[in-house]
Amino acid sequence: MQVSDRFHLWQGLSKRVSDIAAAHRGCLPAAVPEPEPAAPPPKPEPSAAADTPARRHAKQLFEAVHAVSGTGRSLSAIARELGLNRRTVAKYARAASWQECVRRTPPRRSTSLDPYLEYLRQRWEEGEHTATVLHQEIVAKGYLGRYQRVKLSIAPLRRGLPIDTPRERPPSPRQVARWITTTPSRRGLHVTEALRRLLSHCPELDQAHDLVRQFAAMLDARDATPLPDWLDQLTASRLPAMASLAKAIREDQHAVVQGITTAFNSGVNEGRITDLKLQKRITAGRAGVPLLRQRVILMAHLRRRYP
After folding, report:
1. Which long-range contacts does 265-273 make (Cβ < 8 Å, 24+ apart)?
2. Residue 265: helix, strand or coil by DSSP?
3. How many Cα atoms are found within 13 Å in the side-chain-facing hemisphere of 6?
4. How far apart are the C-alpha atoms of 95 and 61, rounded to whole Å?
5. What would the pLDDT profile of 243-277 be if each residue is shown by its tens digit?
6. Is 49 helix (H, G, I), strand (E, B) or coil?
7. What are the boundaries of each domain within the chain?
8. Burial annotation 13-27 (CB, 10 A radius, 16+ → b, else e)
9. The pTM is what?
10. CA dist 198 to 132, 171, 178, 205, 238, Å?
């Protein structure tokens, strides 16, 4: 009796969902919430144009380089005269103003706390100023980070300053496939909201999500009765990736039914193959076949004792 492995069935479905997301890559930015319009920053006063040592130094170098660069001398000669590196001279010579040469602070990297910053700001305005309580609340919503990061993030609020919220990047097709194939109860708050925005914007991904949930229900209940109707839905979905999956399943439908309804699967064999590949990579270039054979036999013995 042939039995399809449930893991590979689910993996094949996830791959098709990733292909659909890649085909509709233009819809993926819809998962990112629209940023709130920020107030324009105040224009600095003319007198404060060079009010820091770094800015004054950049202005002096710019004036010195441009005072000599117009004489027709080479960059190497200018660098020797001013005692600067040739690349520094080239940078200041190409610049149209000294402000272009000032080292800018790189933008803050996004963190796992970013999806919860708006919630922290809202709770702060409601009067909750205890970092421990705020950390416990967002942990209940799916946050997996540490308390210290929450404490540091609300520190600007204690000084009356806003929290810096960077613009999120659109998810990748593989990330969208992981969202869709994850059980809804195990999705975090940020993933749930992002997936809701994405599915409401892209009907193809919404259709793929419904098909994935139907197949997941069959696996959970070990009931293959809806499988023929589900395959018809794949064929009629006008999604080439899903139609190809339906064709592949129909070619071996009996084994797929057995994989859904029975407890038998090839997971044990896949585990043994994984062990073999792991041992091969560990000893590659440092040992021969006799040691590999001994380690594989030992691993099989341990698997039998501690399944």
Report:
1. 265/3, 265/5, 265/6, 265/7, 266/3, 266/5, 266/8, 267/5, 267/6, 267/7, 270/5, 270/7, 271/303, 272/300, 272/303
2. coil
3. 21
4. 11
5. 999 999 999 899 889 888 987 766 677 777 888 88
6. coil
7. 6-32+173-261, 50-101, 114-158, 267-305
8. bbebbbbbbeebeeb
9. 0.55
10. 33, 10, 14, 8, 19
